[in-house]
Amino acid sequence: MVANAFTQSVRPLLAKFGIEAPDIRIEGLALDSRQVAPRQAFIALKGHELDGREFIPQAISLGAKVILAQTDDSGAHGAMEMRAGTVIVHLFDLPAMLSSLAAAFYDYPASKLDSIAVTGTNGKTSVVQLISQLTSLAGTRCAAIGTLGSGVYEGTSTQWAPSPANNTTPDAIAIQALLADFVLHEVRQVAFEASSHAIVQGRLSQVKTDIAVFTNLSRDHLDYHHTMEDYAKAKRGLLAQPGLKTLVVNADDAESANWINNAPAHIEPVLTSMDKSCLRLNEYRYCLAGDVQYHQAGVQFMLQSSWGNHQVNVPLLGTFNVRNILSAVAVTLTLGEPFDNIIRLLPLLKPVDGRMEVFEFKHHANVVVDYAHTPDALIKVLQSARVHTQGQLWCVFGCGGDRDKGKRPLMGNAGEQYADHIVITNDNSRSEAPQAIADDICSGLANPENAVFIEQREAAIRYCLDNAGPQDMIIVAGKGHEEYQIIGNTKNNYNERAVIARLQMEYNT
Q1: CATH of the domain at 34
Q2: What SS3 class is residue 181?
Q3: What is the mean pLDDT of the chain?
Q4: pTM check: above 0.90
Q5: Quick check: 3 pLDDT over 60?
């Protein structure tokens, strides 16, 4: 049984919103007219790029018997018309109603789960995956939603279903459908990434959330939010989630003070930190890492918390992963998992696909794949790699086309400051010329003559393997887990992890 097998009449569904509608049974809600099937209701919204109301005829031709259409006229709210045997109900401010409408249709599935929302510029995917790993290892059936996709967590055999439109956070209907499907599959806990876009657009407004996690804030998405102040405020919108009881916040990030100060009185902050001096330990519960030591296979540190203290050794690379681990541990402890169980499970954690994922080469430099695509993320990746590297550090990266151009020189500066060698390559160039993007990156370099530009990503990686020493480390940043590269209007198949695994076999023979 799947969530879209839900069946109910639109009469009681719309009655919850004060609208008297005919008794027509539907089995699902669809935002995309191409996905409409008989017995589904089509939601005709005015979007950022397309107006769904223009696709009403297509939805009718595909068998939709009910259409809920956005109207800009408040006086027309609840008005109905018949067209070719299809009922069209006009709803004012439908985008704001959408999360409530979907939650009601799927019978409020989040209320039947422990729900954790993770936001921040970097680290969302890793924290969601680490929470899922710890929960699953502890014996609780759980699920995850985010950049990797969505699915019931089954360890390394998890089959992640791509999110609609490749959104980090699915649309308001899709996320309720996913949660309902998880409930049907007896999932007890879900962790999901909450993007700033999703928070601002109200996709999560009726997703009951028990714990919110804030990881960090740095420059990203200014093509959408325009200013860092608006971007930060968008993230903090997560504090308004229904049912929110606990806030796990990275106290080492300057923005954390705004989260704590803006949290309503009924929300309990739980602080994580790698600097004990910054914590008000008598005021809040906490998880912190002390005496951190980095080695070739991971990190060792003293976990000190309100629940207990213990030395731990975790097979993950990097300072930021220590912070990600602290967030995941704080969530799991808050939900009631015994401290001793957490200590037993931490050494069993595995790297997240495309997040500081190491590919070992016998006679050449090891290659680390990471999704870092912001200046702050790239700095953190390179700083983290440095403490695990005996030789020199090489960095392969690019920047996306048709996106925030202001971060390109910042990316260049980050690479030059924290790596010994930088190789600029193509990312998702979209409609822009790769050379023009590379020139923008180079404008942030003090010594652009030292940078190498190799447009093809595989060729750039080969260049590093051929020129780096065996004690060096090569960071390949930007693609991570992704399995595509967008050039022009074409979405090409490109799996960087598979490419490097193939090079690993070639160079190791």
Answers
A1: 3.40.1390.10
A2: helix
A3: 92
A4: no
A5: no
- pLDDT tens, 202-232? 899 999 999 999 999 985 655 665 688 888 8
pLDDT digits (tens, 9 = 90+) for 264-278: 999 999 999 998 776
Alpha-carbon separation of residue 292 from 295, 313, 322, 324, 378 (angstroms): 10, 10, 9, 14, 21
Reported residue count of the chain is: 509
Classify residue 399: in a domain, yes or no: yes
Backbone phi, psi, residue 155, to 5°: 70, -145
Residue 257's identity, in one-letter code, is A
Identify whether residues 22 and 115 lie together within a single domain: no
Task: Output the six-digit token pair for 188.
Answer: 């007890």
Strand partners, 88: 67, 81
Q: How far is CA 343 from CA 100, 295, 305, in A?
A: 40, 19, 12
Residue 267 lies in a domain: yes
Sign of CA dihedral 272, 274, 279, 281: positive
> Does some domain include residue 101?
no
Residue 4 pLDDT > 50, yes or no? no
Map tokens 């967590």 to a residue.
Answer: 153
